Amino acid sequence: MLIISINDPRAIIHLITSGESDRIERTVSVSNTDKFSEAVCAFANDFPNHRQSGYLLIGVKDNGTLSGLKVTDDLLKNLGALRSEGNILPPPIIHIEKKSFPDGDVAVVEVKPSFFPPVRYKGKVWIRIGPRKAVANEAEERILIEKRQVGITTFDSCSLAHSTLEDIDVELFKHHYLPKAIDNELLERDTRALSDKMASLRLFDTTAKTPTVAGILLLGKKPEYFLPGAYVQYVRFGGTGREASVLREVKFSANLITMLNKLDSFIDTSLVERKPVPVSVLREEQVLNYPYWALRELLMNAVMHRDYQSNMPVRLYQFDDRIEIMNAGGLYGNARPENFPNVNDYRNPIIAETMKVLGYVNRFSRGVSRVNEELLENGNGKAIFNFDLMTVFEVTVHLSNDYLTQVSDPVSDPVSDLLKVMGKENIPMKRADLQLKLEFKHKNYFLKNYLKPALEQGLIEMTIPDKPNSRLQRYRLTEKGSKLKQQLQNK
C-alpha cells in the first residue's frame, strides 16, 4: 500500500475501507490521548521497516464505516499537541487533516517514520506488530537501535572516537537520569548491560562501542576534553560595550545534567535583581530587572540548539543596559528568519529530548512566544534576535524600563550588598577581602560604587582613618551600619 498524499480524497477512502494493516489504526474515540499517543509512537518507530507513513484515523470504526463524528477545532488542536507537548520523544513528524464525507468527518493523523528510533511515549517504546500495538521487548528495542545507527544524521548521535564507558559518570546516569527517562515498571525488569541501556537512549553506539557525542555531553566526567567549546562563559561588563572593564567572569564547565542545574540557580540568584515597590500603605510588589523564566528559557535554548562541533562556548554577556546570549550555529533545518519562531528544527535532537525529560524544556515550539509575553509584561520589550551573523545565533534582552524608573532606596543596592557581606562579629576586613566576597575583579569600580558611598553615609568606618591608604587599613560597620544590616536581614 503506497499513499502519496492525504490531501487526495481517494487515498483517504482507501485508508478507511482497506483491511487490517500495521500502517493503519482506526478509532471512534475523540479524547483518549494515551491511545492516540501510543499509536503515533508506534508508527514513528516503524518496526516493520516499511519506510512509509502510518495513519491514525479518528472517526472510523474497526469495520471501516464512519461513526458520524464532527471534527472540531479543539480536536485538531489536541492532536497537534501530541507533537509539541513533549511526552513523545524524540518529537514525531506528523501531518493532520480533517476530511468530510456524507456519513461524517474523519481526522487523519499521518505519522512519518522517525530518523531517531526508538521513540518513547512516557518512557515506553511502542511498536506495531501486525494490526496491533505493543510495548517493545529488549530484543525488539535493539533492532530499533541498530536501525537508527544505520541512518545517523546529527552530530549529537554520532559515536565519539577515543571515548569509553570510563569517561561516563555512571552513577549520574543510573540514579538521576535513567529513572526520569524510563517507565519505572520497565526499569525494574531491565537486566541489560549498562551500554545497552545507554544505547536505548541514544547515548551509546553499540557498533563503535563508544559513547555518542550526546552521551559525553550529558553524562561525561570531562566533556571539555573531547569537545573544547562545551561550556558557558558569563561575563559582567562595567558599562554598555565590550570595551568596558570586566567586573566578573564565571565559567560553567561540566556535563550538561550538572551544568543546567548550576545555570538555573545562577540566573535566579545572580542575574535577576528584585526591587520592592510600594503599591499601597500595606503592600509592596517586586519589580525585576529581567524575568527569571524568560532568561532561563533563552539560555537553555542556546545550550540545546548550539553547534557542538564549534570550539566557541555559549556566551552570556551582561552589560549595564542589556544581556546578550550567543551560541555557535545559526538557524537549523526548516527554521528560517521569515518563519522563526513559528517553525523550529533540532540540530541536537537527543540533547533536546534529555532537556525535556529533566524539565528544562516544558513544551516544544512554545518557548519563544512565552518569553516575549513575559518580557513585555516586565517592561523589557521583546527579545531581539539577530539572524545576520550566519554562523552564530544571538539574542538580546534589554533592561526593564519599569525597573529603571523606580525610585531607589536611600541606601543603594551596591551598599546594601556590601553591608550583607561584612562579618557577623564585625571583625575589621581588608578591602581586597570584601571585593573578593562580592566577586568583583575591578578595584576602581568597587571603590566608586561600594566602598566610598558606604563610608560617606557613615555605614562603615576605617580602622586607621588618618592613613586611608595604609596597607594595614581595615573596614568595619558603624553602629548605624549594624542597625541597617539587621534591618536588611529581617526583610
UniProtKB/TrEMBL annotation:
GO molecular function terms noted in the UniProt entry: helicase activity
Domain Filamentation induced by cAMP protein Fic-like C-terminal span(s) in chain numbering: 413-478
Domain Schlafen AlbA-2: 20-134
Keyword terms: ATP-binding, Helicase, Hydrolase, Nucleotide-binding
Protein name: ATP-dependent DNA helicase RecG
Source organism per UniProt: Paenimyroides marinum
Lineage: Bacteria, Pseudomonadati, Bacteroidota, Flavobacteriia, Flavobacteriales
